[in-house]
Amino acid sequence: MLENTLAKLGLSDKEAKVYIGALQLGSAPVQKIAEKAKINRPTTYLILENLSKKGLMTTHEQGKKTLFAAESPERLTLLLDKIEDELKEKKLELTEAMPDLKAIFNFAGNRPRVKYYEGLEGIMALNEEDVARTAPGATSYAFNNLDWLYDLAPEKATTNVFSRVKKKSAVKAIYTRKAGPVENATDPSLLREARFVPKEKFPFEATLSINPGKDVYIYNYNEPICGLLIEDPGISNAMKAIWDLAWEAAEKYN
After folding, report:
1. Pair 143, 243: CB distance under 8 Å
2. Where are the strands (E) in 1-123, listed by range?
3. N or C: which end of the chain has fewer CB within 10 A?
4. Within a 10 A sphere around the Cβ of 208, how many other Cβ atoms?
5. How far is it, in rounded angstroms, from Cα 60 to Cα 69?
6. What percent of the chain has pLDDT over 90?
7. pTM of the predicted model, to two decimals?
8. Other CB atoms within 10 A of residue 26 CB
9. Distance CA 152, CA 127 (A)
10. DSSP code string of 160-224
11. What count of other Cβ atoms lies within 10 Å of the Cβ of residue 57?
């Protein structure tokens, strides 16, 4: 409807009705426009004044009567120009305020930042971010449930291995698997060192990836499938300490 189009240009619902009514009538007194727009006369008069201020209405005298006439619809482009000017002004104000806003954000930067990813596609996106955010030459540390990982996304797992190796980023992993240890789980050519732990004793369902001093990635393959990215040096270092303890304990199973 035309009223909806005019509303997007900044006119209220009643302003749109009055303007369209005036367009249809040509030059007319307030009472006629009010009847056409189906709005009471006092309100219509106030709206006509507002439209005049916006450059969309003109008045002239005919005898003792004041008649109102809508300006050409081409004048509506002035409203767009005004909106553009206001947006530019707001953008400039935001740009000027940005340093202060960032200073406040950085001051509170010691709080962990947490991102939530939902569904299989979500955790695949999280996995890509995990690989992308690992620095070239760095080592990440993981707890892996291979049954879930390779059942749900075997191709993705293989792709990420080669993406990681291309960056010369190593991984040390503690993994569990119902069928037992994987042959060549430790593979220097893939920059991978791994230790197996029996699933019946350590039935962890989720997969964790740790970048010490940076972040932790948690993948939950049970319903509801979801993932978490926790950006916090303290938490990642604490998880790395737990991983170190588990790594030493896992040696007896290998």
Report:
1. yes
2. 27-28, 57-62, 65-70, 113-118
3. N
4. 20
5. 8
6. 28
7. 0.55
8. 11
9. 13
10. HHHHHHHTT-EEEEEEE-TT-PPTT-SBGGGTEEEEE--TTT----SEEEEETTTEEEEEE-SSS
11. 22
Q: What are phi and psi of 218, to 5 degrees?
A: -125, 125
For 105-131, what is each residue's pLDDT tens digit? Answer: 766 656 778 899 998 888 888 888 888
Distance, in Å, from the CA atom of 216 to the CA atom of 229, rounded to the nearest integer, reads: 6
Q: Strands 170-176 and 192-196: what pairing?
A: parallel
Q: Give pLDDT, residue 154.
A: 64
Average per-residue pLDDT for the chain: 86
Second-level CATH architecture of 2-76: Orthogonal Bundle (1.10)
List the structure tokens of 212: 């010490």
* 8 A C-beta contact, residue 219 and residue 158: no
Q: Provide the CATH topology of domain 113-253.
A: Endonuclease; Chain A (3.30.870)
Smallest CA-to-CA distance from 231 within 210, 212, 216 is with 216
223-238: pLDDT as tens digits: 888 999 999 899 999 9
Identify the pLDDT of residue 171: 92
Paired with 118 in beta bridges are: 226
164-201 burial code (b ≥16 CB/10 A, e <16)? bbebebbbbbbbbbeeebeeebeeeebbbebbbbebee
Residue 28, both tokens:
């007319």
Provide the pLDDT for residue 238. 95
Are 39 and 17 within 8 A, CB to CB? yes
